[in-house]
């Protein structure tokens, strides 16, 4: 029989004795022995799990013997607690986890345990809480669901907070575990008066000076408030924030910070942070709750306590100062009144009182802690974001100091204005090579200028004197920052270590300043390009493969800004010259690839909105209290060659700004590269009119030259558009085309050319149609005139016929008179009269017909010319002329008929 079988047999005998023993003493001894063996043996835990739960739960139900109930509870706790000194194979069964699952599945087991909390015996309540905590640790979801189904289950647990100290502490621990993820339980706890009980215990334990109980209370409080807007409203409107803020007050000696006090302060700062970040919802109600929390907290003077912890208590641990700075940044972010409140705060004692912002800036420039620099820098980011008045207020103090003050150490800068201190920090590199201080000052300056053209123009006017007077006139601050950018790769930091590309953050931060400065500021671009070496250095920086991906990418963005926001017309400095330099020195393919590499880099691809700090718990409290600064030799992800602190400085907001800017840069460079300069500064000598050249020949030569130039330009546009678009697509980061069938640049140029030709033909066709319509109108008028003439000729013919009839009657009368022998009457010469009448009518008719034929001949010539042109354009001439003149009779025909009749 092996050891497992022996243990199982032994556990079985003990359980049998507990169930069927005759003597109470025997049963108690068996229970004690069972508890001892289960607490020390995995095999006993496994054996107990197979057969022990029904027996011990039966003891808990009967409750006849208090000592047996205690023993049963203690044994159950041992069965659910992993044995620390024993080591199990990773794939082996975990007895404690298995027993937890078995007990939680036992019907009514949770309700039975909760009912034991009402027992008078101290140890029964104590072991019951321990057992519930063990169940919750290993099987939280099932226990949470079970407690919610039990009437007054939560109420019974909350009541334990008012029990004896040991019971209270166990109940605190249990409720802390129970509320980590269960929102429904969080709400019930609040309605059961948890806030009042928590603050009562904290006050009783001594606030921030208290022990681990204060830490547990604050952890429970944070569980109730984190991302829970409704609970935050209840705290604000019932208990209020005064009890919370009072925990921040430093009591006793302000330079004494034990590890437990540090953890307690970090916990209450986490509570403040939860209130400042509001609920997890993104609706307007949650936003209003967040703003209300910020307003009320400042009204209750929380800002003074935060400044005391972060700025004035320099003995406070770095972790506490950083958390205080983070809260200050969240407190003023997007809140106008709080921004003004911070701007008006003063710190220090007379006579060395100075604005709070000046004190925070000094910390940024002086601190040796990278984490403290990042946290304090966040305050200025929050202060300047969408606060143009605040930016202008800070920018108005940017007044260069004399060289004597510029060379002064920071210990002498107490009386400096904010701007003077900032410029002092920027100029530090000039006399001691302290690039790090200048870099930190550059970060603050970038916030002062962000999205504020007035501040950019103001800072653009600043000129700094050189530490070496023989170097000449003061140089613009912009030029000084470019010089520091070049020095950043060769200088050393405060620790004397060389700032190698792998761990240097100097270049990216200075590039961030320059990119922010030049964005949408043509005057800054012009100032940057005034010094030709600037463009040369920037081209070299983009091409330098020894720098980090981030530095090369930001340099490429800066180079793109020099083209996009370039309003210069000066040759060699205009947008086309910049793009041409990129093409010649780097190549558009390599340039676009630099932008693409930056977007795919670890730093840019992993940027996410700022996330709340990891919740402070018992398990991680010590490590968070002893915050280790970012080490230069920190082991980093192989995919990330950039300094780890850049992940905090280059947040999602800045990354999105760069992405949007990059898209505009790509499109603008393609447009500039595919459309050369259209203006010509001077006329070539070949285009001047020669001495003996006639005007017609000169015009003909100019026309030939213009046609040749148009052809060459069209070919150039074709080549450039094709090349630029191919390169942009190669870069991979350009804008996505909505039409997948869209062709390349050549197709677009050809289509544009055909479209223009089609428009010209359409215009010519409209002109011809207009002329044709005019001709048709004239032909119609001539047709009407011909019809009128035909009518007149017909009337004349009728008159002639009447005359013939009259003549005939006269001849008949004359003949009758002759025959009757009457006196002869003189007979007029009829033939003569007829001849004269015929001659007069014929002359009148021939004159009118001659005029008509001349007009028709002229119009016929026009019609023939227009018909030829219409045939060239593909028009059906016969169809246009069909029907014209068909009904018009010709006067000549009538005249001939008249002659024949005659």
Automatic annotation (TrEMBL):
InterPro entries: ARM-like, ARM-type_fold, Uso1_p115_C, Vesicle_P115, Vesicle_Uso1_P115_head. Residues 353-669 form the Vesicle tethering protein Uso1/P115-like head domain. Keywords: Coiled coil, Golgi apparatus. Residues 727-747, 882-902 are annotated as: Disordered. Residues 889-902 have a biased composition (Acidic residues). SUPFAM superfamilies: ARM repeat. Residues 772-897 form the Uso1/p115-like vesicle tethering protein C-terminal domain. It holds the Pfam family Uso1_p115_C. It is found in: Golgi apparatus. The keyword Coiled coil applies. GO terms for biological process: endoplasmic reticulum to Golgi vesicle-mediated transport; Golgi vesicle docking; intracellular protein transport; vesicle fusion with Golgi apparatus. The keyword Ligase does not apply. Residues 748-813 form a coiled coil. GO terms for cellular component: endoplasmic reticulum; ER to Golgi transport vesicle membrane; Golgi membrane; Golgi stack. This is Golgin candidate 6. It comes from Centaurea solstitialis (yellow star-thistle). The lineage of its organism: Eukaryota, Viridiplantae, Streptophyta, Embryophyta, Tracheophyta.
């Amino acid at each position: 029989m092996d050891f497992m079988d022996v243990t199982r047999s032994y556990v079985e005998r003990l359980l049998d004795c507990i169930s069927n023993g005759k003597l109470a003493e025997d049963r108690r001894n068996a229970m004690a022995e069972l508890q001892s063996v289960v607490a020390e043996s995995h095999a006993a835990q496994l054996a107990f799990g197979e057969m022990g739960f029904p027996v011990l739960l039966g003891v808990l139900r009967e409750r006849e013997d208090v000592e047996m109930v205690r023993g049963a509870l203690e044994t159950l706790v041992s069965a659910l607690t992993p044995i620390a000194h024993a080591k199990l194979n990773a794939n082996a069964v975990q007895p404690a986890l298995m027993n937890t699952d078995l007990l939680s599945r036992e019907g009514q087991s949770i309700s039975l345990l909760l009912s034991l909390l009402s027992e008078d015996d101290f140890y029964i309540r104590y072991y019951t809480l321990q057992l519930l905590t063990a169940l919750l640790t290993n099987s939280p979801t099932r226990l949470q669901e079970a407690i919610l189904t039990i009437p007054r289950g939560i109420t019974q647990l909350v009541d334990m907070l008012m029990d004896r100290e040991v019971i209270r502490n166990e109940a605190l621990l249990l409720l802390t575990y129970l509320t980590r993820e269960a929102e429904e339980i969080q709400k019930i706890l609040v309605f059961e008066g948890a806030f009042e009980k928590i603050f009562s215990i904290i006050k009783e334990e001594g606030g921030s000076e208290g022990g681990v109980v204060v830490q547990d209370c604050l952890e429970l409080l944070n569980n109730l408030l984190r991302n829970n807007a409704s609970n935050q409203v209840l705290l604000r409107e019932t208990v209020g924030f005064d009890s919370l803020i009072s925990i921040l007050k430093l009591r006793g000696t302000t330079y004494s910070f034990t590890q437990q006090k540090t953890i307690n302060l970090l916990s209450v700062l986490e509570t403040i942070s939860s209130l400042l970040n509001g609920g997890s919802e993104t609706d307007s109600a949650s936003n209003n709750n967040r703003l209300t929390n910020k307003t009320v907290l400042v009204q209750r003077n929380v800002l003074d306590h935060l400044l005391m912890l972060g700025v004035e208590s320099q003995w406070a641990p770095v972790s506490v100062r950083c958390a205080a700075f983070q809260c200050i940044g969240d407190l003023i972010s997007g809140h106008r009144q709080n921004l003004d409140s911070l701007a008006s705060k003063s710190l220090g004692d007379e006579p060395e009182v100075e604005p709070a912002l000046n004190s925070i800036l000094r910390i940024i420039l002086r601190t040796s802690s990278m984490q403290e620099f990042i946290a304090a820098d966040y305050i200025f980011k929050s202060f300047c974001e969408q606060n143009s008045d605040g930016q202008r207020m800070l920018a108005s103090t940017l007044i260069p100091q004399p060289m004597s003050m510029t060379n002064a150490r920071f210990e002498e800068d107490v009386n400096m204005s904010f701007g003077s201190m900032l410029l002092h920090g920027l100029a530090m590199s000039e006399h001691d090579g302290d690039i790090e201080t200048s870099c930190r000052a550059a970060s603050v300056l970038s916030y002062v200028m962000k999205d504020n053209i007035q501040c950019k123009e103001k800072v653009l006017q600043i000129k700094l004197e050189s530490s070496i007077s023989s170097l000449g006139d003061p140089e613009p601050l912009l030029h000084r920052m470019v010089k520091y950018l070049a020095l950043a790769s060769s200088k050393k930091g405060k620790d004397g270590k060389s700032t190698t590309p792998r761990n240097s953050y100097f270049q990216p931060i200075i590039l961030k300043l320059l990119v922010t400065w030049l964005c949408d500021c043509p005057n800054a671009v012009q100032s940057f390009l005034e010094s030709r070496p600037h463009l040369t250095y920037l081209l070299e920086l983009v091409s330098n493969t020894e720098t980090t991906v981030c530095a090369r990418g930001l340099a490429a963005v800066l180079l793109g800004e020099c083209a996009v926001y370039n309003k210069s017309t000066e040759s060699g400095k205009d947008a086309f010259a910049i793009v041409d330099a990129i093409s010649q020195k780097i190549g558009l393919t390599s340039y676009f690839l630099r932008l693409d590499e930056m977007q795919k880099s670890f730093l840019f691809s992993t940027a996410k909105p700022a996330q709340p700090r990891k919740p402070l718990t018992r398990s991680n409290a010590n490590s968070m209290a002893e915050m280790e600064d970012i080490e230069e030799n920190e082991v980093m992800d192989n995919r990330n060659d950039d300094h780890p602190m850049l992940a905090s400085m280059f947040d999602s907001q800045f990354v999105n700004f760069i992405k949007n800017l990059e898209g505009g840069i790509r499109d603008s460079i393609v447009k500039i590269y595919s459309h050369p300069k259209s203006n010509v500064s001077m006329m070539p000598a070949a285009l001047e009119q020669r001495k003996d050249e006639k005007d017609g020949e000169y015009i003909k030569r100019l026309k030939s030259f213009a046609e040749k130039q148009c052809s060459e330009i069209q070919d150039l546009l074709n080549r450039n558009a094709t090349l630029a678009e191919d390169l942009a697509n190669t870069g991979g980061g350009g804008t996505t085309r909505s039409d997948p069938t869209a062709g390349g640049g050549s197709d677009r140029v050809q289509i544009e050319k055909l479209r223009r030709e089609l428009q010209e033909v359409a215009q010519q066709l409209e002109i011809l149609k207009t002329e044709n319509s005019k001709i048709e109108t004239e032909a119609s008028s001539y047709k009407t005139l011909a019809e009128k003439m035909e009518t007149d000729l017909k009337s004349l013919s009728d008159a002639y016929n009447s005359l013939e009839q009259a003549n005939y009657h006269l001849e008949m009368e004359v003949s009758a008179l002759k025959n009757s022998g009457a006196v002869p009457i003189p007979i007029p010469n009829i033939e003569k009269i007829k001849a004269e009448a015929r001659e007069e009518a014929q002359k009148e008719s021939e004159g009118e017909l001659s005029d008509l034929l001349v007009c028709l001949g002229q119009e016929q010539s026009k019609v023939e010319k227009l018909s030829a042109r219409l045939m060239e354009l593909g028009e059906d001439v016969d169809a246009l002329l069909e029907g014209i003149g068909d009904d018009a009779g010709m006067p000549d025909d009538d005249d001939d008929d008249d002659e024949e009749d005659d």
